[in-house]
Amino acid sequence: MRQTAVAEIYFCNMQLLRLQLFNYKNHAERFVEFGSGLNCITGPNGTGKTNILDAVYYLCNAKSFFNGIDQQLIIHGKEFFSIHGWFNNDVETDILVNFTKGKKTVKKNGKAYPRLLDHIGLFQSVFITPYDISLVLEGSEERRRFLDFSICQTNRTYLEQLSLYKKLLDQRNAFLKKFEGRSFDPVLLEALDHQLAKAGQLVFDERRRFMEGFIPGFQEFYAFLTGESEIPELLYTSELHGLPLSEILQQNIDRDRVIQRTGSGIHKDDMELMLNGFPLKKYGSQGQIKSFVIALKLAQFRYFQEKTGKKPILLLDDIFEKIDSSRAGKLMELVAKDFFGQIIITDTHAERVKEHLKEIEAEKKFLDLSRPAQN
Ligand SMILES: Nc1ncnc2c1ncn2[C@@H]1O[C@H](COP(=O)(O)OP(=O)(O)O)[C@@H](O)[C@H]1O
Ligand SMILES: [Mg+2]
């Protein structure tokens, strides 16, 4: 473990001080004060522990970790939800998310962002949840999401170009649909392709650069978690490794006209997950898959920290119940070494989490959702 790299520099942490929810998922009204160290949220299943973690994620990213449809996040029967958070990020900053009548606004210190994009990258959080296995088991979109999320947090040009690429791609697909089988002025498509290729090429270059820096850390964390000599690999796959996007688009124009959409580009990239030379999805055991995704998240944590000079907020969902004790023990080893900053952890059993944390000296705070609120 490269402890020295972490210990050498003094990092100020990203910290959420307070959180106030109205009508967010099952929380009609909820106020939580957090400590700077370990914060444990306990309560039976369905009491809204994960929803609180998701609200914290929402404050950082202007969207839910689990559900992209904001309307479904409003508590049943109400018209709006709001999430208000007070952060300490050198100075105190308050972020207010409000979703009402189908419209979302995000305000920083009382002032609405003109574009939600402008909020991205201000606060980093890393979410470790049992649901992460979708990263391995689902399609390539999940893995692109992981890549994009990791890069966007600390690279504004990437964020802007990726967003431009998506816009141009929609335009190109609409164009191909509109002219299905009919002749059209190629100059129009050429102009669009020129812009699309430029944005896509930048995204490709950044993804490739990111992977180079990210992989060694990821492998180190995998070895740390498992203590085994297995070889975990991440392979960035993209058609752009072979040809520039401008040429790929040109070569495939006839196909694209037939299928009426753009069949090549960085929106098709993937990250192949391999273990000992075999695809993890097909051959990995449940334990190996879990170690793999936790290692990805820990490497993400360190990546953000190295880029921003601050420790992100760590959100740990159900780790003592859903991952086995040796991996949970390894995570606690990192906690004990002060590797993380602020942590918010959930568990169904207060006693279990207290037992796991009893050796750890950090400041601890407990919130039991099965008890009526004190305030
Ligand atoms: N829009 C919503 N309105 C009301 N309840 C919701 C909404 N979305 C989710 N829930 C409820 O939230 C609860 C689950 O919360 P969750 O945070 O996953 O619980 P926990 O992590 O404590 O097990 C479920 O009972 C679910 O029905
Ligand atoms: Mg939960």
What does this molecule look like?
Mean pLDDT is 93; it is low at 1-9. The strands form 4 sheets. A 6-stranded antiparallel beta sheet has the order 3-2-5-6-7-8, with helices on one face. It has a 5-stranded parallel beta sheet with strand order 9-14-15-4-16, with helices on both faces. The longest helix has 41 residues, at 186-226. With 375 residues, it is an alpha/beta fold. It is built from 13 helices and 16 strands. It folds into 2 domains: 17-124 and 313-375, P-loop containing nucleotide triphosphate hydrolases (Rossmann fold, 3-Layer(aba) Sandwich); 140-309, Glutathione S-transferase Yfyf (Class Pi), Chain A, domain 2 (Up-down Bundle). Bound molecules: adenosine-5'-diphosphate (ADP) and magnesium ion (MG). Magnesium ion is lined by residues 49-50, 317-318, 346.
Low-pLDDT regions:
1-9
**Domain count:** 2
The general outline is: globular
Bound molecules: adenosine-5'-diphosphate, magnesium ion
- CATH top level of the largest domain? Alpha Beta
For the record, what is the CATH homologous superfamily label of the largest domain?
A: P-loop containing nucleotide triphosphate hydrolases
What is the average of the pLDDT values? 93
* Strand residue percentage: 15-25%
Strand order of the largest sheet: 3-2-5-6-7-8
Radius of gyration over C-alpha positions, nearest whole angstrom: 22 Å
**What is the name of the CATH topology of the largest domain?**
Rossmann fold
